[in-house]
Amino acid sequence: MATTICPSYSTCLTIDLGAIRANYRTIAERIAPAECGAVVKADAYGLGAAKVASALLAEGCRTFFVAQLTEAVALQDAIGIGSTIFILNGLDPGCEAMCASRGFIPVLNSLSQIEHWRATARQHGIPLPAALQVDSGMSRLGIDPEIAGALAADRSFKREVSLRLLMTHLACTDEPAHPANAAQLARFQTARSYMPGVPASAANSGGSFLSPDFHFDLVRPGIALFGVPPQPDASVLHPVVRLAARVLQIRDVPAGEGVGYGHDYIAREPRRLATLGIGYADGWPRHLSDAGAAWHNGMRLPIAGRISMDSLTIDISALAADAISEGDFVELVGPSQSLEQVAGEAGTIAYEILTRLGRRHQRIYVDRDRTENSASGVNP
Asked: Is 101 helix (H, G, I), strand (E, B) or coil?
């Protein structure tokens, strides 16, 4: 990998678009005949929404979900018109006109969002498309099922809002046997009974690996597209990212020498250490201090001391003296260490590791199926 990395970068993040497309196919086949959309919020979980959505578009995906209006604008500018873009968080007051003019579909989560969208429709003199989210038991976003029933009986609501999707979000799909899954399904079915004929969506990444009862008309995978199994039955997914960091310096330290801020690490015996050009400013969690590791040729190299803003130190004493040199790269995410393993050692989840990786890495996009490679120093 090192031969493809620009010398001005200390880290390299490789993103396999072919693996993303393969994961999309796996999910789409599993949930058919339901439609498979794609959640590309937070810049496709930090991997670059323009590149990721373009790859999924070529794979046949036509429905995308983002969290905010600004994300919808950026996505449409990147992939063009012709796809359906839902805005999961709905709209902040005053954004309705722009949303309507761009043809996005807001997910209406509250009575105030509903009323603002209806007022915009009245100004336009035509019904405007929207999705309606029902809170089936997560207590985060959405209206009560009974309110959905009242809206269904409101003739003026039907004249003002063209309801394209009735949706909910599942809280416990990472635990297939959790009783909340069945309870949420039952509450959502109640809401659906008020609005027969409206397409429905409940399943996120984990939900796509639950029974077909949860799939309805549209499934919304996110983290699963990026190779992170949302539950044990999802081990068929392909890993998508690799992260490598350059060795900036190698040094020998004597017994008793302190390493890093606060001297949290004291060498108990003579050690050989390597300083890597990655730190918490690059999204590498500070909680991995004295806990995480890098890997080289299948050998675990533990982090020694605190992780700094731009660097961290690893213990390479187990390697042969000539096994690694300054300028070489070591693995932080890859075949030896998955995102889930990193997250576990950092006391967090893979979602957070991905979305924190930031813009300082050189990004190399590869596509196994198309043999089209592209590299860029910033997120597209």
From this structure: helix
